[in-house]
Amino acid sequence: MDRNRLARWLLIGWGVVTLWLAGWYCWRVADRGKGGASGVSVPVIASPGVPGYTPKEGATEEPQPVCVIWDDRLIASDAKLSYSRARNVYRLLQRAGMRCGLFPVSRLELALSEPCRVAHLVLLHSAGEEEIARLKGFCESGGQLVVQGSQSLLLMRFFGIAPRDRTLSMRKDDWIGYSFARGSGALAGLPSRIRNTAPMVLDLRAERTSVRAVSYWENARGVRNAGNPVALFEGPYGFWIARAVYEEGSLESREQMLAVLTGAKHPELWEEAAERLRSLTWERLGAQNPDAAEKRLLQQTEGESRRQAVRDGFARLRVREKQVLRGRAAAEAAREVFRESQLIYAAALLPKPGTFRRVAAWMNADLAEQMPDGGGWPAVADALARAGITDLLLQAGSCAWAETPISGIPASASLKRLGDPFPAAIQACHSRGIRVHAWLAIGDFHGATSARKRDYETSGRLLHSSDGGAIAWLNPAHPDNCSEWVKIVSSLAKIPDLDGISLDFFRYPEQSVLEKKDPEVVTKLLARLSQACGDKIRSVAVFGSYPRSIEFVGQDWQAWLDAGLVDWVLPMNYAPNCNVLRWIAKQQTRNRERLVSGIGIHSNEAMMDVVEMVDQLRFLQNEGYGGVSFFLFDVSFLREKVPALEAARVVGSRHVR
Question: Which of 36, 49, 353, 644 is deepest in the core (most CB within 10 A)?
């Protein structure tokens, strides 16, 4: 064989090997992110301020004692919803100390492998014969299921329940949650109640005597009895929650319920959780044990009163650490030590009161209804004052629904049930020196009635996705939308004694749309709305990445500040940690005294503990931001974050005022 021919064959062989390696690599990448539905990959947590940010939450491919399964075989929107709910279950169980993995149902066999003992199935609608066979083998080997909101008839039949009349019967009513019985036969450790508002719930019944109802839905009138649909079943294979648990009410209650259901038939998981929480307690304080944690924290603490608070706090923790407890009690005690350690961290290191000119909080309109002991808006205002909040951003609605009476906008379920929250909120907050702003989700059209959505789509007032379908987002370039927005803002501006109006969803959506994303259109519209605000304080929630936000969502917010169209903006800097927040802040170098930086306490991007909250506040203080805004001030914020913020104000008062 001559040299030229040999060279050609070697070149061809090298090309084949290269193509094979490239194909293998592409297959591995596709396999790592494959979904089941066309165009569906494993969803990631997208941070509005960080395009393309993909944390590794739940990315483990190793089986854990507890696995959380989401359905990647659904259409794109349903798969993302299943993932979102499953991710929340994963987060809550991690908070409780459980070692978890987060898997798509396409990897069910791997997820159920040793050492898995409990599997949470979240909105698993596509379960077929193959999945049922694997779940059956898992349960017969001692495994347990906790199912949330599945509509798979095969999975229902396997568990031992069925829809009434053998159809997916739905009861249309205002269901607000469910409570748990006490005494003989009740599951120990469950919270008193779970809030889970739903206009419709599946009406299911037990088909076997071995399956029992644990809890029933409560309607908006507070009626709770066995005639209502069942909210939670218990059977030989575990537990069935009729509807997925959403983010409302107390985060601690949701965490407590899921942890109790997880450990009900595998109590050894509590011992493991207790040990993990003990390690995590000192790890979060940057140490390996209480002595090292105390020494490290004292080195960072300024002021003798704060240092004494640290010493006193660690003395209490050492007493608790010496307790010898077993089972669920051990895990609960370890969780209390974790919470106490975080309060000590806050008392030692939180920025001084008055550091930020504005400390804002976003709040849903029905929070007063959820206050303990029926305290209502006075109790809410007291909590805001204890946390050092200066400005309340109270939910007012959107063009699809209204939380306060707005001509032409349908009333929300909350407005119908509870009435207008603004008069009571303004009175209670003003008496404590807190300003109240109407939080308007101006471009969002989610939650609209079918008839209203159809009318807006027919008249061309909705934006369209890249494939031509209408999406639940109003087109800022449509003149009818502009006129309606001006009327809504003018109406809100007439609320007696209201301090300001804060616009949310005032942009194009981050997803691709057929329509041109024109920042000039958004800016000109803002000028009209700014005028409609009259003498009210004007603010807008914005994407933090600047100037990318101009092209990405049409928000040239630095230009808005320069032109005086707004008094301040609220960058949605919802970062899971300070490293990501630092990356965002590099793009926000101008007008920082007029930036009220968002902190995503309980957001899609983050579910942060007190230590992370303190670290982000300290970072924003050092970077010279004029204010911060907490998203979201809810029952969980009230129970977890307010004590921390209050502790710092009380302990530091002697030497910071």
Answer: 49
